[in-house]
Write a structure and sequence with these properties.
The chain is α/β, with parallel strands linked by helices. Helices cover 28% and strands 22% of the residues. It is globular, with a radius of gyration of 16 Å.
Length: 211
């Protein structure tokens, strides 16, 4: 955490949701709110995952307030793992409470990208989405939802060349029918070991690009 991090307790469909709010410096007016979803709960995924923290730092650097939260059954969040169904409802509950209006960005890592894609499909087009970030999209393990064509220019998909958890080929198979570009990090692993600064810079570049 940093000096601008606040602990939150939110209401979820399965009970209490544990969350963290990271904000830009006080003199910066937030551009909006970004919600970040963490990797698989049954394999140690939490809101404190290093990739999730890297995403949070990138969004804060670009002037966004960031909410990262633990899915049901993780940390102090109540409930039990629900294979993505209940987790999608958790994410939607976080959006409803932390970003009911205004600019909204969604990001997810691994299992979190699958959950985020389902929430995105639920929110769009009733809700404007300003930025979308997929990291290590779990396309080989889950039915990651397609991205609405109108959001392609606002969407960044990053994957490691040597991801041994989700093969790059699976992400290309998901992206190809959508003609959705994929940014490949040469030599990158699923957790981007040794390459988190590069991951952050790619996200910052996306967030600062005009769309």
């Amino acid at each position: 955490m940093n000096a601008q991090t606040e602990r939150l307790v939110l209401a979820g469909p399965a009970g209490r949701i544990e969350a963290l709010l990271d904000t830009p410096p006080a003199e910066v007016t937030p551009r909006g709110t970004a919600i970040i979803a963490h990797p698989h709960p049954l394999f140690g995924g939490t809101m404190d995952n290093k990739v999730v923290q890297t995403l949070a730092r990138a969004f804060v650097q670009c002037g966004w307030s960031v909410v990262r939260f633990n899915f049901r059954g993780v940390g102090a969040t109540e409930g039990v793992h629900d294979e993505g169904r209940g987790e999608t409802q958790d994410l939607l509950a976080v959006v409803q409470q932390c970003a009911p209006e205004g600019a909204l960005a969604l990001a997810g890592f691994s299992f979190g990208s699958f959950v985020m894609s389902q929430a995105l499909a639920s929110l769009w087009p009733a809700r404007q989405i300003d930025k979308v970030v997929f990291v290590g999209a779990a396309a080989s393990r889950f039915q990651v939802a397609t991205v609405p064509p109108e959001l392609h220019e606002r969407t960044l998909v990053i994957h490691g060349e040597h991801d041994d958890t989700v093969p790059l080929a699976a992400v290309m198979d998901w992206a190809r029918p959508q003609v959705l570009p994929v940014t490949v990090v040469p030599g990158g692993s699923h957790f981007f070991h040794g390459q988190l600064p590069l991951l952050k810079s790619l996200v910052v570049r996306h967030l600062t690009a005009a769309t």
